[in-house]
Amino acid sequence: MSRITLDGIAHAYRGSAQRPEDYALKPLHHVWEQGMSYALLGPSGCGKTTLLNIISGLIIPSEGRLLFDDKDVTRLPTEKRNIAQVFQFPVIYDTMTVAENLAFPLKNRHMPKAQVEARVKEIADILDLTPDLNRRARGLTADAKQKISLGRGLVRADVSAVLFDEPLTVIDPGLKWELRSKLKAVHRALDMLMIYVTHDQVEALTFADKVVVMKDGSVLQVGTPLDLFERPEHTFVGYFIGSPGMNLLPTAVTGNRARIGNREIQLETTYPSFTDRTAQLGVRPDHAILAQPGQGLPVQVQRVDDLGRVRLARVMLGDHPLVATVPDDMSVPTGEAGLLFQPGRVHVYVDDRRVEGVAA
Amino acid sequence: MNDKPINNKAWFFVLPVLIIVLFSALLPLMTVVNYSVQDTIGQNSFFWNGAAWFRELLDPTTDLGDRFSGALQRNLIFSFIILIIEVPLGIGVSLCMPRSGWKVGPTLVVMALPLLIPWNVVGTIWQTFCRLDIGLFGATLVNLGFPYNYIADAGSAWFTIILVDVWHWTSLVALLCFAGLNAIPNAYYQAARIDGASRASIFFNIELPKLRRVLVIAILLRFMDSFMIYTEPFVVSGGGPGNATTFISVDLVKIALGEFDLGRAAALSLVYNIIILAVCWLFFTVTTHLEQREFRAS
Question: pLDDT for A202-242, tens place per residue?
Fold first, then answer.
């Protein structure tokens, strides 16, 4: 069990990187705290798996140092690192029974037999594999095989971290939720550092204490699910987290007033002026509330989607499409309507980065 | 219940193949069947001989039966030896082959080279290579003091023919295994590293099980081919010394073309054919059956 430090870790698959685009993973400093669960979230090809494989040693990074506690393990081979990893597709050893599969990582490390058995039993109980323990692993369903893979990842109690690379891809949706809760329970019980790669935000937000949002090889924000929702540090985070994503509007900000088209709205805080750079206003659909015509910004309602728990209106503000919440007491609006932003919930982004205002 | 339209026109498309198979396989085979139950005294006059040739062939006390059982034993021993050598060697070679990068192409070409050389050329190459006077291999062995003489010594002759076959066909097993190994997803190797598996453990728990199907095919092909071996012993040792390397096919040609004994030769061909079919069928059925049973058991 330990803390894992990334000290300027970067990786380019083709030798040394000349330009920023050559990096699969751009230089990164981060400390993974012992006992926490992290989710690495981002679209395909953003460098999540590369980062994971660097931590497990399947890839040696082209730059930077990797520390387990204070020990430099950058060039240590995988089998010498104390790390477990579960892959996207189930990997099982055909020749072995389920129990032998689970015991395999322990046996290879010469753990005494009685201890191995106790550990296998414990993990099998958690993952509901006990009835299958003596069956051959090769005939089982994909679900069960992936549970075995998960089990092999969790069976070693002494690992520095358990890494999951989209482990629930092959699991059917009903079981997915159940397994994710199991993993969370295991995490709580075993107090391990877990890093979980996914491109599914629901998975990330429900599993992790902290979510690391990545795009194009860089980390955009590390934060709790609530941070990501309430204070997205980057427009991509705002757009990627939440369904639908954050509304973004081009704007010009002077002091505490933001100009949108030919209208102006009042902001809670004051900003320096950024005339030479692109500024955007970000508002989550949950905080953009539709109102009667004449109030707030004038918008055209295009369509209203009733999601059951909430009604979302697709509206046009001038040429810009936005999504807004329809208040419970409002009848289904058509045509002209007003749009109000909840005070304090409007963020200002300059060159895609959030800028903190100064209280007026 | 069955309201699908019935259209027998499809048979016309199958017909050309049937006709070709008829002329290429069925009719020649039937003439052999025909010969095997008849005797002749020349002048193209045949008379019925029933199963007499077959009885003679399968009775080791007769001259023909004795020749046949001797040759059959040699065939089985030969196939057994080359399988014992070529299968592990082929697996070993495939494990050493590069899996990616520019080396893959050249390696595959070099590996495939022996397979592209015609049998009699292979025989001639080795016949020259092993000569005691001018052959690099034969002369070297003799000069080093080994009692090597493939013309006079049965052990040397067997050694040479097995060497020829191993040289000629190990590539086939290696290439099949190479394809099998390449089909194993990288995640298996990554997972094995994470699990701390040793190289031997990776081989026995990941690679060998995944090579199973490929190996069944390799063993079948190599058994069939080695059981039908003809050209190499014919060119290298001529079946000798004595009849030490006289395999069924060599003897068959002697009976059919040397002694022009059509009835005996036909009976021998049929039995030979049936043995190969039976062994292959048995092997294939047993392996697939085992696999299914294992699948059901799990």
Answer: 888 888 889 999 988 888 999 998 888 888 999 999 988 88
Contact A124, A102 (CB under 8 A): yes
Task: Indicate if the alpha-carbon torsion angle B139, B141, B143, B148 is positive or negative.
Answer: negative
Å between A163 CA and nearest CA of chain B = 11
pLDDT digits (tens, 9 = 90+) for B224-257: 889 988 888 888 887 778 788 888 888 888 888 8
Cβ burial B195-227 (10 Å sphere, 16+ → b, else e):
bbbeeebbeebbbebbbeebbbebbeebbebbb
The answer to whether the Cβ–Cβ distance between B191 and A88 falls below 8 Å is no
For residue A224, the cross-strand partners are none
Give the residue on A whose Cα is nearest the Cα of B196: A79
How far apart are alpha carbons B171 and A242 in whole angstroms?
58
Do residues A73 and A241 lie in contact, with contact meaning Cβ atoms separated by under 8 Å?
no
Q: Tell whether B291 is within 8 A of chain A (Cβ).
A: no
Interface of A with B (CB under 8 A): 53, 56-58, 77-79, 83-85, 87-89, 91, 93-96, 104-105, 108-109, 135-140, 149, 152-153
Cβ-nearest to B196 among A91, A93, A108: A108
The enclosing H or E element of B45 equals: none
Q: What is the structure's pLDDT at B295? A: 64
Pairing label, strands A320-326, A311-317: antiparallel
pLDDT of residue B167: 94
pLDDT tens-digit map of A58-102: 888 888 888 888 888 888 888 888 889 999 888 999 888 899 999
Residues of A in contact with B180 (CB under 8 A): none
Residue A204 is encoded by which pair of tokens?
A: 């990330």
Band (B297; pLDDT cuts 50, 70, 90):
low
> Which of B100, B189, B195, B199 is the best residue to mutate to test the A interface, defined by the most A CB atoms within 10 Å of its own CB?
B195
Residue whose entry in the numeric block shows the structure tokens 């295009």: A302
Q: Which helix (H) or strand (E) holds B192?
A: helix B186-194
Query: Which residue in B79, B46, B52 sits closest to B65, CA to CA?
Result: B52
First vs last C-alpha separation in chain B? 38
Q: Do A95 and B209 touch (CB under 8 A)?
A: yes
**Candidate from B188, B191, B298 with C-beta closest to A138:** B298
Output Rg (C-alpha) for chain B, integer angstroms: 24
